[in-house]
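QA checklist item 7 of 12: single-chain prediction sanity check.
[x] sequence parsed
[x] length recorded as 155
[x] structure emitted
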Amino acid sequence: MMDCLILGDEIAEGIKQFRPECVTKTQANAPTDRWIRENGVKFAAKTVVISLGTYDAPSQTLENEALDNLRKLRAGIEADQVFWLLPAKAKPADAMRELARLYKDHLMIIEEKQRNQIHPTERGAELLATQSHTKGKMDWTKPTWPKRAPPLIGG
Protein backbone atom coordinates (compact mmCIF):
# COMPACT_ATOMS: atom_id res chain seq x y z
CA MET A 1 0.00 0.00 0.00
CA MET A 2 1.40 3.42 -0.92
CA ASP A 3 1.93 6.03 1.80
CA CYS A 4 -0.05 8.96 0.41
CA LEU A 5 -2.53 9.61 -2.40
CA ILE A 6 -4.06 12.97 -3.36
CA LEU A 7 -7.27 12.82 -5.43
CA GLY A 8 -9.30 15.54 -7.11
CA ASP A 9 -9.01 18.87 -8.89
CA GLU A 10 -6.20 21.41 -9.26
CA ILE A 11 -6.61 22.41 -5.61
CA ALA A 12 -5.45 18.90 -4.75
CA GLU A 13 -2.52 19.38 -7.11
CA GLY A 14 -1.53 22.48 -5.14
CA ILE A 15 -1.22 20.40 -1.96
CA LYS A 16 1.19 18.08 -3.77
CA GLN A 17 3.93 20.73 -3.89
CA PHE A 18 4.14 20.45 -0.07
CA ARG A 19 3.61 16.67 0.05
CA PRO A 20 6.15 15.48 -2.57
CA GLU A 21 5.95 11.92 -1.25
CA CYS A 22 2.31 11.69 -2.36
CA VAL A 23 1.06 10.26 -5.62
CA THR A 24 -1.58 12.45 -7.28
CA LYS A 25 -4.55 11.63 -9.46
CA THR A 26 -5.92 15.03 -10.37
CA GLN A 27 -7.89 16.72 -13.13
CA ALA A 28 -8.24 20.49 -13.45
CA ASN A 29 -11.79 21.90 -13.42
CA ALA A 30 -13.34 18.44 -12.98
CA PRO A 31 -16.85 18.06 -11.57
CA THR A 32 -17.11 15.12 -9.18
CA ASP A 33 -19.17 12.88 -11.48
CA ARG A 34 -16.75 13.30 -14.40
CA TRP A 35 -13.70 12.80 -12.16
CA ILE A 36 -15.12 9.52 -10.83
CA ARG A 37 -16.17 8.35 -14.30
CA GLU A 38 -12.66 8.94 -15.68
CA ASN A 39 -10.60 7.86 -12.64
CA GLY A 40 -12.68 5.18 -10.90
CA VAL A 41 -13.39 4.68 -7.23
CA LYS A 42 -10.92 2.00 -6.05
CA PHE A 43 -7.89 3.42 -4.26
CA ALA A 44 -5.60 2.29 -1.44
CA ALA A 45 -3.05 4.31 0.54
CA LYS A 46 -2.21 4.95 4.16
CA THR A 47 -3.34 8.57 3.74
CA VAL A 48 -5.81 9.85 1.13
CA VAL A 49 -6.61 13.53 0.52
CA ILE A 50 -9.73 14.34 -1.53
CA SER A 51 -10.53 17.70 -3.13
CA LEU A 52 -13.70 17.54 -5.22
CA GLY A 53 -16.98 19.48 -5.47
CA THR A 54 -15.65 22.90 -6.48
CA TYR A 55 -16.74 22.42 -10.09
CA ASP A 56 -20.05 20.63 -9.52
CA ALA A 57 -22.86 22.37 -11.40
CA PRO A 58 -25.73 23.86 -9.39
CA SER A 59 -28.80 21.65 -9.51
CA GLN A 60 -31.94 21.02 -7.49
CA THR A 61 -30.82 17.43 -6.99
CA LEU A 62 -27.15 18.24 -6.41
CA GLU A 63 -27.23 17.25 -2.74
CA ASN A 64 -28.27 13.69 -3.58
CA GLU A 65 -25.96 13.53 -6.62
CA ALA A 66 -23.00 14.82 -4.61
CA LEU A 67 -23.67 12.40 -1.78
CA ASP A 68 -24.12 9.43 -4.15
CA ASN A 69 -20.94 10.20 -6.11
CA LEU A 70 -18.81 10.83 -3.04
CA ARG A 71 -20.28 7.79 -1.25
CA LYS A 72 -19.20 5.57 -4.16
CA LEU A 73 -15.72 7.05 -4.04
CA ARG A 74 -15.35 6.72 -0.26
CA ALA A 75 -16.65 3.14 -0.25
CA GLY A 76 -13.86 2.21 -2.66
CA ILE A 77 -11.06 3.76 -0.61
CA GLU A 78 -8.95 1.66 1.71
CA ALA A 79 -6.93 3.97 3.97
CA ASP A 80 -5.78 4.54 7.54
CA GLN A 81 -6.97 8.13 7.31
CA VAL A 82 -8.88 10.18 4.77
CA PHE A 83 -8.94 13.97 4.54
CA TRP A 84 -11.80 15.77 2.78
CA LEU A 85 -11.04 19.29 1.61
CA LEU A 86 -14.35 21.13 1.91
CA PRO A 87 -15.32 23.09 -1.21
CA ALA A 88 -17.01 26.48 -0.94
CA LYS A 89 -20.26 25.06 -2.38
CA ALA A 90 -22.71 24.05 0.33
CA LYS A 91 -24.21 20.84 -1.07
CA PRO A 92 -20.98 18.98 -1.89
CA ALA A 93 -19.55 20.20 1.44
CA ASP A 94 -22.59 18.86 3.30
CA ALA A 95 -22.16 15.48 1.59
CA MET A 96 -18.49 15.41 2.63
CA ARG A 97 -19.39 16.23 6.23
CA GLU A 98 -21.87 13.39 6.32
CA LEU A 99 -19.37 10.89 4.92
CA ALA A 100 -16.59 12.13 7.19
CA ARG A 101 -18.76 11.51 10.24
CA LEU A 102 -19.73 8.06 8.98
CA TYR A 103 -16.14 6.99 8.28
CA LYS A 104 -14.46 9.04 11.06
CA ASP A 105 -12.49 10.95 8.43
CA HIS A 106 -10.90 14.38 8.76
CA LEU A 107 -12.25 17.63 7.29
CA MET A 108 -9.99 20.43 6.08
CA ILE A 109 -10.85 24.00 5.13
CA ILE A 110 -8.85 26.47 3.09
CA GLU A 111 -7.79 29.07 5.64
CA GLU A 112 -5.91 31.35 3.26
CA LYS A 113 -7.56 31.91 -0.13
CA GLN A 114 -6.71 33.75 -3.31
CA ARG A 115 -8.88 36.68 -4.43
CA ASN A 116 -11.31 34.30 -6.16
CA GLN A 117 -12.19 32.93 -2.67
CA ILE A 118 -11.94 29.37 -4.04
CA HIS A 119 -8.29 28.42 -4.48
CA PRO A 120 -5.75 28.47 -1.65
CA THR A 121 -2.79 30.81 -1.66
CA GLU A 122 0.60 29.11 -1.62
CA ARG A 123 0.57 29.43 2.18
CA GLY A 124 -2.99 28.05 2.23
CA ALA A 125 -1.86 24.97 0.28
CA GLU A 126 1.03 24.53 2.69
CA LEU A 127 -1.37 24.67 5.66
CA LEU A 128 -3.56 22.00 4.03
CA ALA A 129 -0.52 19.79 3.47
CA THR A 130 0.43 20.19 7.12
CA GLN A 131 -3.09 19.27 8.26
CA SER A 132 -2.99 16.14 6.11
CA HIS A 133 -0.15 14.73 8.24
CA THR A 134 -2.56 14.06 11.14
CA LYS A 135 -2.64 10.37 12.07
CA GLY A 136 -5.60 8.21 13.04
CA LYS A 137 -9.36 8.48 12.81
CA MET A 138 -11.37 11.57 13.70
CA ASP A 139 -13.23 11.72 17.01
CA TRP A 140 -16.52 13.32 15.99
CA THR A 141 -17.61 13.76 19.61
CA LYS A 142 -15.18 16.72 19.94
CA PRO A 143 -15.24 20.07 18.12
CA THR A 144 -12.67 20.09 15.32
CA TRP A 145 -12.70 23.38 13.41
CA PRO A 146 -9.28 25.02 13.51
CA LYS A 147 -10.67 28.58 13.64
CA ARG A 148 -14.26 28.70 12.43
CA ALA A 149 -16.61 26.76 10.20
CA PRO A 150 -16.01 27.61 6.54
CA PRO A 151 -18.34 30.07 4.81
CA LEU A 152 -20.38 28.25 2.19
CA ILE A 153 -21.84 29.60 -1.01
CA GLY A 154 -24.81 28.23 -2.90
CA GLY A 155 -27.86 26.58 -1.55
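[x] summary fact logged: The beta strands are 2-8, 23-26, 43-51, 77-78, 81-85, 106-108.
[ ] second reviewer sign-off
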